[in-house]
């Protein structure tokens, strides 16, 4: 068998096989079509909770949730206040909270260089021979790349410009020769939540030829940056005082207008870009900024071929730009650092699913032919952008000896009703709230709360003495409370349909999907529940996921109501959930040496099996906590 030289894992968050096949059949996705003809293709079964952090961790470790312990966006550890985990969104993506070994840690021990870009898991793994870069996907405590947006300053500002102030004249500054007195001017950058103090910037306007003022100088760290009219400067370093501490930034200036008498001055400041804290090694951040290579594609224009319309499309416009940026990063680091394994993540489909799926399903009460066609055009555009992204990656970053894997963490099914698990537990006497005068809202009353719900993940935690700081349930009552919680979940009824929105509710040790029952992570709740398709818990407002609080409106409502913002979901369902062609399952496409060509597997693969298959083809050990198997069915 021909040896695999390198591997690229292209993570397509939320991608579904039904859409790939539909748009390929319509001739809209030439890159997917070509890739599929040379690949093996299948659906992929996620681990519950069927969500982003959980399954990108599974894809990178080969471990189930029971082992790695990354339970969707919110983690609860025994000994912490139950509500604390709901305040620390995203921390499950940090390497310190994952209990399983990542494949790039194994590669590092084997001396194999790895690149991890924009990946929602594993930040920041300590690699001696590898690079990690945070992209647009947020990571806890990682400072933003753009600290201040582009702005124009003028001595005669318009509504869209800010003021340049004259602060004096000097005869000479840092050896600058001027035929007229050098004019010192100042702008003040202060309109940013990240900054802890304004940034005063002084510029010097001078006359270099004796024909009137024609140049601007900026002096930083004993270095002069001279800019003529209509020119951009080179990158200028600046120290930033931010809520993340002191950071180093880079920016450029351009002289837009400069009158000969020096009274009219217009300068443009580029974005001030932070170079610290979002790349490992840290100096890689500055290298990428100076070369105008960032994963968000800040310096790219959107392709003109995309017809953008409607309020959803600015997001897709940004994702088209991000695709270009990701390709730039991956290809640049392939040339300069020679990675052998690359894991990257691209988030275009998940947001499209959340927005469009209700319109795509004829069984939805929202279904309308006109809206369905608009939804179809939106989804098609998302897949066409991704198709071009794939083409660029394959052209610039792979060879015939490259193992290419395109994989998604989950799919999605249409949803249109919101369920209140909180109300069900309140009515069962398991969860209590009291009015907080200071906050002007209802807040959980721990002295009367026996069971506390998480929404992402879909867990119920027993407020157990000796385990929870606020615990009131004795160990002897533990099983009784769990049973009452399960009964409360099954008692919920949709008044319109008469259906119970909860499809399955079980004790943690009885869950059929969670994984290794002999070693269940402490972050997995006491009761696990799954909703029926069509129902969801999140309707676009993050505060609604925090069960420490409950609104008066929710207390007065019934158990279910129509969604207003989010119309496709995945995290709340069993991994086997399917609604016609829509499914919680993701995609798996593999191409390269030793891989079957042009076949579609009838049985979905498991995401736990991706890592051991890569390890086998590279001839390196699997991560020590890997539970998956080699996908023999995809091998020649």
Q: How would you portray this structure in words?
A:
This protein is of the alpha+beta class and about 625 residues long. It is built from 13 helices and 36 strands. β15 and β16 form a beta hairpin. The protein is globular.
Looking at this protein, list some descriptive labels.
single chain; 636 residues; alpha+beta; ten-stranded mixed beta sheet; five-stranded antiparallel beta sheet; 13 helices; 26% strand; globular
Q: How many helices in DSSP terms?
A: 13
Tell me the radius of gyration: 28 Å
β-sheet strand percentage: 25-35%
Helix content: 10-25%
Mean pLDDT: 94
Q: Kindly state the number of beta strands.
A: 36
Largest sheet: 10 strands, mixed
Gross morphology:
globular
Structural class: alpha+beta
Distance between the termini: 8 Å
Poorly predicted ranges = 300-309
SSE blueprint:
Layout: E1 6-12, H1 17-25, H2 30-37, E2 40-45, H3 52-61, H4 65-68, H5 103-109, E3 114-117, E4 130-133, E5 146-148, E6 151-154, E7 162-163, E8 165-170, E9 182-189, E10 199-206, E11 215-220, E12 223-228, E13 236-242, E14 245-251, E15 253-258, E16 265-269, E17 272-274, E18 279-280, H6 283-290, H7 313-337, E19 341-346, H8 348-360, H9 369-397, E20 402-407, E21 413-419, H10 421-427, E22 433-436, E23 441-444, E24 451-454, E25 459-462, H11 478-490, E26 502-507, E27 527-531, E28 534-536, E29 549-550, H12 552-556, E30 560-562, E31 568-569, E32 578-579, E33 582-583, E34 586-591, E35 599-600, E36 605-606, H13 610-618
Parallel strand pairs: 1-19, 1-20, 2-35, 2-36, 3-4, 3-19, 6-7, 21-28
Antiparallel strand pairs: 2-34, 4-18, 5-17, 6-16, 8-9, 9-10, 10-11, 11-12, 13-14, 14-17, 15-16, 20-34, 21-30, 21-31, 22-23, 23-29, 24-25, 25-27, 26-27, 32-33
Helix pairs in contact: 7-9, 8-9
């Amino acid at each position: 068998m021909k040896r695999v030289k390198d591997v690229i894992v292209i993570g397509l968050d939320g991608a579904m096989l039904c859409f790939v096949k539909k748009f390929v059949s319509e001739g809209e996705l030439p890159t997917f079509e070509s890739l599929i003809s040379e690949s093996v293709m299948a659906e992929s079964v996620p681990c519950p909770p069927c969500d982003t952090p959980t399954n990108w961790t599974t894809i990178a470790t080969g471990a189930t949730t029971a082992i790695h312990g990354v339970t969707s966006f919110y983690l609860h550890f025994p000994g912490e206040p139950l509500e604390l985990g709901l305040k620390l969104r995203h921390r499950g993506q940090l390497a310190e909270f994952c209990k399983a070994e990542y494949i790039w840690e194994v590669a590092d021990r084997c001396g194999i260089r790895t690149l991890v870009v924009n990946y929602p898991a594993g930040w920041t793994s300590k690699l001696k021979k590898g690079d990690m870069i945070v992209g647009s996907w947020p990571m806890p405590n990682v400072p933003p790349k753009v600290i201040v947006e582009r702005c124009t300053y003028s001595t005669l500002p318009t509504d869209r410009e800010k003021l340049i102030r004259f602060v004096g004249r000097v005869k000479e500054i840092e050896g600058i020769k001027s035929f007229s007195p050098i004019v010192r001017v100042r702008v003040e950058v202060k309109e940013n939540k990240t900054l802890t103090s304004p940034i005063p910037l002084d510029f010097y306007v001078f006359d270099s030829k004796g024909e009137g003022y024609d140049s601007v100088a900026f002096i930083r760290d004993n270095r002069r940056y001279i800019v003529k009219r209509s020119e951009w400067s080179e990158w200028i370093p600046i120290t930033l005082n931010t809520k993340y501490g002191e950071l180093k930034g880079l920016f450029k200036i351009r002289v837009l207008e400069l009158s000969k008498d020096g009274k009219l001055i217009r300068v443009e400041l580029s974005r001030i870009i932070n170079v610290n804290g979002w790349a490992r090694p840290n100096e890689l951040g500055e290298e990428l900024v100076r070369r105008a290579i960032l994963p968000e594609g800040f310096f790219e224009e959107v392709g003109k071929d995309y017809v953008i319309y409607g309020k959803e499309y600015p997001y897709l416009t940004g994702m088209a730009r991000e695709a270009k940026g990701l390709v730039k990063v991956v290809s640049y680091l392939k040339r300069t650092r020679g990675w052998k394994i690359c894991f990257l993540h691209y988030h275009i489909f998940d947001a499209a699913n959340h927005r469009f799926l209700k319109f795509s399903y004829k069984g939805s009460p929202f279904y309308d032919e006109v809206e369905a066609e608009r939804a179809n055009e939106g989804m098609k555009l998302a897949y066409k952008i991704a198709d071009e992204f794939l083409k660029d990656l394959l052209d610039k970053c792979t060879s015939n000896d490259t193992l290419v894997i395109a994989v998604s963490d989950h799919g999605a099914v249409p949803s249109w009703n919101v369920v209140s698990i909180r109300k069900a537990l309140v009515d069962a006497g398991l969860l209590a709230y009291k009015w907080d005068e200071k906050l002007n809202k209802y807040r959980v009353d721990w002295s009367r709360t026996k069971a506390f719900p998480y929404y992402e993940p879909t867990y119920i935690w027993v407020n157990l003495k000796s385990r929870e700081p606020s615990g009131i349930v004795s160990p002897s009552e533990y099983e009784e409370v769990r049973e009452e919680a399960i009964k409360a979940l099954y008692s919920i009824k949709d008044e319109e349909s008469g259906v119970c929105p909860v499809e399955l509710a079980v004790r943690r040790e009885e869950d059929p999907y969670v994984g290794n029952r002999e070693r269940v992570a402490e972050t997995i709740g006491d009761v696990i529940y799954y909703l029926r398709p069509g129902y969801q818990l999140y309707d676009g407002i993050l505060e609604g996921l925090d069960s420490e609080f409950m609104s008066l409106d929710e207390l007065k409502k019934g158990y279910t109501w129509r969604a207003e913002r989010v119309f496709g979901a995945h995290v709340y369902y069993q991994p086997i959930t399917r609604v016609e062609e829509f499914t919680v399952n993701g995609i798996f496409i593999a191409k390269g040496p030793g891989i079957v060509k042009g076949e579609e597997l009838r049985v979905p693969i498991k995401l736990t099996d991706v890592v051991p298959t890569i390890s086998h083809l590279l001839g390196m050990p699997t991560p020590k906590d890997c539970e998956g198997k080699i996908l023999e069915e995809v091998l020649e």
